[in-house]
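Convert to structure. Protein one:
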Amino acid sequence: MKADEINSKLLNLEGVNGAEEEQLTLWINLLLNSERELRERLVRLHFLLLKVKCLLQPQILNLDIGFLLELAQMEQWVELNQDHVQNELRVLASEVRKHERDYTPDFLLSSSPT
């Protein structure tokens, strides 16, 4: 992700003295942890929204392609950040994957490998 690339470049602290480097490192780590937590909350909320929609309206579930692409990106983010995300989010992501056929349009399922 673009934000991760930018943040990792910030950690290269050439030309900064010891005390400034330590303080800057603390702030950068705070920023990284805050961003990770916000992303995790967003992904969890998105997954929960999908789960509720599937439970309440399975027969009229109408998701656009944009939503499905976002969902795929969020599933990928969870997989890439397995070491950092809470177990609850990993479980929720696996539940969403189990019901993927419930909310994926038929024309996409026929072209995807099984």
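Protein two, convert as well:
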Amino acid sequence: MLTSTGYVLLVNHDAHFAPDELSYLQLAQGEFTNIPAIHRYRVVMPCLARLAAEAAVALPRLLGSARPLPLGASFYLVNSAALAGAATLSYLASRALGARPLPSVLGLAAVLTSGMASYLTGLALVDSGFIAIISLLWFACSTRTRWPLLLALALGPVLKETFVFFLPMALLYGRFAPFWQRLAAASGGLALCWAVRVLVEYLTPGASATVPLATLAVEHLAASQANVSALFSGAGLVALASVFGLWNGVVLLGFRSRAVVQSWGPLLPSGTGLFLLAVCLHLILSGDAARMLYLTFPVFASTVSLVLNSQPWVARLFNPPTVA
């Protein structure tokens, strides 16, 4: 599902279609000059894409054929694999929360048929890796499993520094892991993020960011009011609704009465509200509302699964009435 839709965008978009893509392609090429500070330290996904590209041309180069690195295609493969991993974790989380197999699969369809899935796999972006790590966090909280939680805390910040917005959920509602372990994993993740920044500066002493990080942070905060206004404008609401399209109707179906909400709402993990709050902070600080809303990937998949699972027709499908 991912490889087909993402490939169409990969081979049919202009090089300047997404400004962020140019930054990450440069990082994959080892070029750090004139890259915005907000992008230059997100090196994990570009490094994985570079490794995949080097592997693809290794044999032709050994045979004496000089070929350029297929970085666009390697980003496509890495991003597709990351989003597929996020989908698998979301499915397992839905099953652990009590959804049957068919509703859980439909929950996956709700997030994988989104146009944002094609956008994130077909372009050289890093959001798919971030979605994979927050899906790991969601899986950990849904299954109450310690090691996925600690792994998410350790790797989240280095994939994208805004993972810190998700730390309250992990620290407050990850009680199935000892607090000292959660604190150690979170501290290690932040230290790793800082170490990558120091290493990048050390290895690229002549390179400079187009805009310093502090300036970018101030600009994001200053633009937050305008971003909120844009979100509640007609165009903003249409952009938000288009992320999951008609699947929004399934979620609305789950809110049609208090009794219906009680049939599936309590099954969600305790920290769901903090997860959604972290996504809201991304929406406020970013000018790309649709891409940020897609961070609800695991929550939306589980919500659709649980809402469908609570419907009488699903119960009849799996437990047909017996004929006396």
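The CA atoms of residues 157 and 164 lie 7 Å apart. The mean pLDDT is 87.
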